[in-house]
Amino acid sequence: MSRGDVGRTALYEPIHGSAPTLAGKDVACPLGAIFSAAMMLEESFGLKRESQWIEARWTACSSKAIEP
Fold this sequence. Notes:
- The protein is mainly alpha-helical.
- It is 44% helix and 0% strand.
- It is built from 2 helices and no strands.
- It has helices spanning 31-45, 48-62.
């Protein structure tokens, strides 16, 4: 992921590929994509509140996670 420079185009991407070997196994983790979007909202669009909302939802969900 790149935060880019002020005034320049930035690129936000989770560097994990499409993981075709994990398809249908319910083991892939989308957090890279989710946090890339949160970073984009804050850094490129100035939407800090929306970015924090995404991060807060992750905190709330992860605190209730059930171990297999």
